[in-house]
Design brief:
Layout (H helix, E strand, L loop, with lengths): L3 E5 L3 H12 L3 E5 L11 E4 L2 E4 L8 H9 L11 E3 L4 E6 L2 E5 L3 H11 L3 H21 L15 H4 L3 H4 L2 H8 L3 H8 L18 H8 L3 E3 L4 H13 L3 E3 L4 E7 L2 E7 L2 E4 L2 E4 L3 H6 L10 H5 L6 E9 L9 E4 L4 H9 L10 E4 L14 E9 L7 H19 L7 E7 L1 H8 L31 E3 L10 H18 L1
Parallel strand pairs: 1-2, 1-13, 2-9, 6-15, 13-19
Antiparallel strand pairs: 3-4, 5-8, 6-7, 10-11, 11-12, 14-17, 14-18, 15-16, 16-17
């Protein structure tokens, strides 16, 4: 029987769920509080420049292909993909950088040139990482996080030790050079936790990096959002922007309506892709599945300070994606996870999409995105933002040996306060809950409400976790759960 399904939020997971549920014949309506869809994956357009406000890395292309294939479509039906060559660059000091190629044989050669014998070790490490990827992405992450038994398969039984070891130790057993260690630890940062708190099994992220490569959708990651919107509308989904959800109303243990801009709108099923903690705050206290103490005790992935900068010239000595690891990685990690504070010397990441995509900036100019990972919940003021921009842009000039400050046309920033204001994000986190051992699979907040029969959740605070590909998967999982229950 067809149901009226009301979805809160229009990020990747909400749009994915909307597509799957509409395909099953349900009447699906999506409500987005902001003026444009996409959740955290919105776009900033200014003076001829175009920036992705949120995600900028397109990894795991197979997950996107699998999503569109579920509707007999392909990503290429909606957007063009460019494989980045090189994939990215990592700076460790002035004139001291490592360039990561777009193929494994060249990366193996790069490793061998830096540390004798490491090429062979990397080949073996990647074979294991690919095996983990096949188990995780083709099977485990497509399970709904209901039972611990979901993790028990013939394949995972052979790798049980990898769930109790950690990435950091595993890499250090094999490699000695600190640069190579940092490069291999970098991909797990997408999972939102320190490498020392991330199970060894998650080395599958290294296969996502070196094995599958880094891609760029023409016109940016927002192209994927527009593709999903087009697919959703083709399937009959209705989407409303500027629609703030003020309350989820419950009657006799069933969520029966949402209050949108003061109006009560009835639904048979309510699904929230908004921040999980915020979504539960829309319920009366007795219907919330998780207490404030529960959220306080979770390990959250970082927040971020982001800058979107228009430059009046082309920027030299950088790739589309460039990482700046010229300061102590462990000290910055402690400032995020152990004793949260603004870092004295932040690592940072810079993206220059106009190096690949001419639509990102006017001719002869460059679009730059700079990101500093931060602990959630920090004090966020214009003065602090300015101080940190000065820190990183001065280091950027020194490391890349060029003057850029005098060529800034404009800069916009986005930080903790904006994540709270725009996304109702718990403590202003940017990436959801970290994927630590005790926050994996069935140990994450549930897709289905524990206290309200027809209320569901999707997105980066539930299974399978943070990141764009997991968000697509989360939308599929919750849609399957809803379909199964009805």
């Amino acid at each position: 029987m067809n149901k009226e399904i009301k979805i809160i939020g229009s990020g990747f997971s909400s749009l994915a769920a909307a597509c799957y549920l509409a395909k099953e014949g349900h009447n699906v309506t999506v409500y987005e509080k902001n003026s444009s869809i996409g959740g955290r994956a919105r776009q900033l357009k200014k003076e001829g420049f175009i920036f992705d406000i949120g995600p900028t890395w397109y990894w795991m292309p197979d997950v996107f292909e699998r999503f569109f294939a579920d509707f007999n479509k392909k990503p290429s039906d909606y957007y063009d993909l460019i494989k980045l060559a090189p994939a990215y660059q990592v700076y460790f000091g002035v004139n001291d950088f490592v360039t990561i190629a777009d193929n494994l044989p060249q990366i193996i050669e790069t490793f061998e040139n830096i540390e004798k014998g490491s090429g062979k070790k990397l080949a073996a490490f990647m074979k294991e990482a690919q095996s983990n990827y096949d188990i995780a992405i083709k099977d485990l992450v497509y399970r709904p996080g209901i039972s611990p038994l979901e993790l028990i398969t013939l394949e995972t039984a052979k790798k049980v030790d990898q769930f109790f070891g950690n990435i950091s130790k595993n890499i250090r057993k094999k490699f000695n050079n600190p640069k190579l260690i940092q490069i291999l630890e970098f991909p797990v940062l997408f999972l939102g936790a320190k490498p020392s708190d991330t199970p060894s099994f998650y080395s599958f992220m290294n296969f996502a990096d070196f094995g599958l490569g880094t891609w760029h959708p023409k016109n940016g990651m927002y192209s994927v959002i527009l593709a999903m919107e087009k697919l959703a509308v083709e399937l009959g989904v209705k989407i409303h922007t500027n629609s703030n959800i003020e309350k989820i109303t419950v009657e006799n243990g069933n969520a029966n309506a949402i209050i949108v801009n003061g109006e009560s709108i009835k639904g048979d099923v309510i699904l929230s892709g908004a921040d999980y903690h915020h979504s539960e705050s829309l319920l009366n206290q007795e219907y919330r599945g998780y207490s404030e103490k529960y959220w306080e005790n979770r390990t959250f992935a970082p927040s971020s300070l982001l800058f979107y900068v228009g430059f009046d010239k082309k920027i030299k000595n950088v790739e589309h994606h460039s990482l700046f690891f010229d300061v102590d990685f462990d000290v910055h990690a402690r400032d995020i996870y152990d004793s949260p504070k603004w870092p004295d010397e932040p690592l940072f990441y810079a993206s220059f999409p106009s190096k690949t995509d001419s639509n990102a900036a006017p001719e002869g100019k460059e679009a730059g995105i700079f990101l500093i990972p931060l602990a959630p919940g920090l004090e966020d003021t214009p003065q602090i933002r300015e101080e940190f921009f000065e820190k990183i842009i001065s280091r950027f000039e020194k490391l890349t040996q060029q003057s850029v400050k005098d060529f800034i046309i404009f800069k916009e920033s986005f930080c903790v306060n904006d994540f709270i204001k725009d996304y109702n994000s718990y403590k202003g986190n940017a990436y959801g809950l970290a994927n630590t051992l005790l926050q994996t699979a069935f140990l994450r907040p549930k897709l289905k409400s524990k206290k309200v029969d027809n209320l569901y959740f999707t997105g980066q605070l539930t299974v399978p976790g943070p990141g764009v590909p997991p968000a697509l998967i989360s939308g599929k999982l919750v849609a399957e759960l809803i379909q199964k229950n009805y």
